[in-house]
Structures are given as structure tokens and as C-alpha cells.
Amino acid sequence: MYDIVVVGAGPAGMTAAIYARRAAKTVLVLEALNYGGQIVNTPDIENYPLESHISGFDFSAKVYEQAKGLGAEFVFEKVVEIRPEKDAKVIITPKNTYTAKTVILATGSENRKLGLEDEDKLVGRGVSYCATCDGNFYRNKVVAVVGGGNTALEDALYLADLAEKVYLIHRRDSFRGEEANAARLKEKKNVEFIYNANVTKLISEKRLKAIEVTDKIDGSIRTIELNGLFIAVGRIPENQNFAGLVKLDDAGYVIAGEDCHTNADGIFVAGDSRTKMLRQLVTATGDGAVAATEAVKYINNLETV
Length: 305
Fold this sequence. Notes:
The protein is an alpha/beta fold. The chain has helices spanning 11-22, 56-69, 131-134, 150-160, 179-186, 281-304, and strands spanning 2-7, 27-30, 73-75, 81-84, 89-92, 97-105, 109-111, 127-128, 142-146, 165-169, 191-194, 197-205, 207-215, 221-225, 228-231, 235-237, 267-269. The strands form four sheets. Strands 1, 2, 3, 4, 5, 6 and 17 form a seven-stranded mixed beta sheet that branches. Strand 1 (2-7), helix 1 and strand 2 form a beta-alpha-beta unit. Helix 1 packs parallel to helix 2 (56-69), helix 1 runs parallel beside helix 6 and helix 4 runs parallel beside helix 5 (179-186).
């Protein structure tokens, strides 16, 4: 019986483990893949207090070693189900079953895909979901960005300083992202905007060679030869396995306020998988601290009853 099981070893989950261990609670962190979450793909973190430049990999390694050094246990197994029982939460993976007094969900989110044929096969061969990670590979080449939110606009701005040409493809006639970013993009001479259109086909010969873009208004199809396609059409919170456990909003995020409490007794949430205004590294670690503190309060109240 653990005091706290943390589901997810991203910045939020590992920070929760640190705070829980400092409160002398037993902690198990369960992670399906590797520790660090999405931040490990960021080559240079510039907006986190204390260190003005650190890679996502180095940042994650430091937090992991800190949590391990404090006594948090890490097991790399995917949680497929959580069952609340009278005196415990039962956490189930394909290999094992664990029990805990409380659970902190810190599962993060994954990239939303276009759903095109060969999309997965071409990741790393011309298809990318991270401009800051892979943009340098396309210096002086032709690329396209798909999306209309802030991430897409920021990706296009970043790539415009590297690539020979950048196409920005959006399914609507206006962007959802900040107008300031859109205005900056419109000043770039090597950026071409394609509105009211969808990428409908990937053309490849071992690597991506071109894309087909279909106009949503007249149905016309345009083939664009390029070297790289950067997909920025949003993220999907990894909460599917917990839909029957906690309340989710229409987009699949766990409904919770700044106190990180869910509707389920003894279940807390931290990081990008919860409803929130800002999803950044600093808010993820902040959530981890809050969720662990609230979980510790919950356990202490149980022990005084």
C-alpha cells in the first residue's frame, strides 16, 4: 500500500513525487514510456526560472534524479485502469496491480495527428510535430506548417528564419492564434498563407516529397513539393482510460481547478491533462506541487479519523 501513486513521469508527475517524498509519504510513479514527457523534445528551455538555457532532456534528468534521490520509486508500466475501493485505490497495469491511498493523474497530452496514410511511417522522414526540435534539419529547404493556433503560428515564425520557404496551411479563413504572431508572419517574405484548405495526402519515396492540399470551398487540389511538414493541430490529453473515473470536458481534459481536485474522492490531477488556461513547463511543475500537497492533506485527514 503506497500513500500516493503518480500516473505519469513528466514535469508535473515528478514534481509531485518530490513534494510527496519531502512530506515523508511513500510514492510510486508509473510511466508508460520514459520519464520527462513532451519536454524532453525541447532543445532549449528559455522561460523557466533559475536557468535561462537548458535542454528538455537535461531538465528532465535533473528532476528525475532529484525525485529518485528522495526515495520515489519509478516503474515503467502503462496504467490501464484505476478502481476506487473502500480503503484504497487499485491501479492496474498489464503486468501488475498496485494499491494506494491517493492517486495523482499527471498523464500529459500527445500530438493530434492528421490521420493520413503513412503519417506515422514518415515521422522523422519529413513529418514532424515539433518545429523547435527538428527545424534545424530543414535549413534553406521548403517546409509547410498545418494549423491555426498559437503553436502553428510560432512554429511558422521559427521556421521562417531557417527555411527557404514556409507554407502555412489552415482549414479556416482566419487564425485562432494571437493576432500579433499572425501580423509578424505576414511581414515575412518567405511565408505563403493557404486558407480554407486541408492537407489530404502525403506523397513520399522513403521520405516525404510533396503534399496534396484540397481547397474546402471549390474542391480543387494543389500539389506542393516540399522537404518537411510540421503538424500543429492541437494536442490530445491522455485521459481515455480514466473517463469512467473522473469527469472530463468535451476535449477530454480532466475537470479540475487550481487546487487540482477532481470530482473523485482521493484522485488529483496535475499538468497538461487538466482544464487550465496556460499549459507551460512552469505551470506543470506548479500543479505537481499543489496536487502533492493536497494529496498529503487528504492522507493526513484519513489518518486522524
